[in-house]
Amino acid sequence: MRRVVRQSKFRHVFGQAVKNDQCYDDIRVSRVTWDSAFCAVNPKFVAIIIEASGGGAFLVLPLHKAGRIDKSYPTVCGHTGPVLDIEWCPHNDQVIASGSEDCTVMVWQIPENGLVTSMSEPVVVLEGHSKRVGIITWHPTARNVLLSAGCDNQIIIWNVGTGEAMITLEDMHPDVIYNVCWNRNGSLICTACKDKSIRVIDPRKEMIVAEKEKAHEGARPMRAIFLSDGNVLTTGFSRMSERQLALWNTQNMEEPITVNEMDTSNGVLLPFYDPDTNVVYLCGKGDSSIRYFEITDEAPYVHFLNTFATKEPQRGMGYMPKRGLDVNKCEIARFYKLHERKCEPIVMTVPRKSDLFQDDLYPDTAGPDPALEAEEWFEGKNGDPIPISLKNGYVPGKNREFKVVKKNILDNKVTKNTENSSPANKSASPTPSIKSEAKLEEILKEIKSLKDLVSSQEKRIINLEEQMSKIAI
Questions:
Q1: Domain 27-171+352-407 coded CATH 2.130.10.10
Q2: Cα–Cα distance between 56 and 118 in angstroms, integer?
Q3: What would the pLDDT profile of 435-445 be if each residue is shown by its tens digit?
Q4: For labelling, which of 16, 42, 139, 250 has a CA lying 20 to 30 Å from the CA of 310?
């Protein structure tokens, strides 16, 4: 007897929108015509790209700050053109990168408890694209490695710690790049391009490892993401404008492993993938539903699980990393759905009767610690994500201050000279360090007093402006 219904612990996953008082209201979500998610979340903050006059801006809200967001709430507003894509650093919950129409990529360090005043000074500005930058994605396992792709059809991989462009992939894409995705250990990337091709690229060798032309026949945008087993999952359109989901083996991309036809809507399907459970969630821009599928090794490989449907269409979608979920409620995914004027969290749960920790739902997941430093990765090393257990819920550690070091050739020479110095000099070194600590204290005090001075002057300026406006009236 063949079982009619396939056994799966995710068959009864159900989605639920949170109550109104837990939504983020009165947010003017960006109207830019670009197919990015417009929202990025991590266990501390939710960031949303918003409408901004005279430049580009995004909001960064602490997760607990639900309710109505005041119009005067501070924003991150350093770009001179609309922001097209944002992404949180996987290794530091206070660092976020943004790409914009002004051709730059900026990296920001958000204060521990969120913004108090608007932020217009990034930690580092990465300049190298000649057209707008629409795709930003951090390396999954190496610290401070950031990839950006622009409408100049180039991909640049940066060492954010030094602010340098280390790898530039030109002449690989003849047209606009729709998306870029790293594989699990960050040794390869896959891209979807307007020329209807899917490419798997080794960025350090600067070569295309595998390529499939006309992965989807339709003319509308595609998406391609890596799965944890190294296969590639793509979403696109058929010639008849039906939306498709396909699975590819990168060793042989002649024919797809499987293709699923879905419906004839025209919104681009944004795939969100959970490598721990092998569930992929498809959120169509302009759709009012989230479909989810389980990927397995046996045919038909892609198994439809269910659809979460609402009345309102989504303008964008944020996806919470696994370590930000509530394991006590058997929550396996959380989305942040953007409406025209608000952001609404949607919780996906597996119904279980037991209150105990469900280790089959929560295998060890990628933690926030990087496996490699940027320099090691550029030299050719690879590292798998360092797993953490969610058994007692994830407790965020203290994030290191993010610093950008501009390389100076003179520094190298100085260090070499000091190394050659005699042991006598070395033994005398602890005293200067005490002096330098005192000096540092002094400098920090000075900075604090300057900050206080600036804030008092700001208040004074505001008062004067108010008085001026009264006089003008």
A1: yes
A2: 13
A3: 677 778 778 88
A4: 42
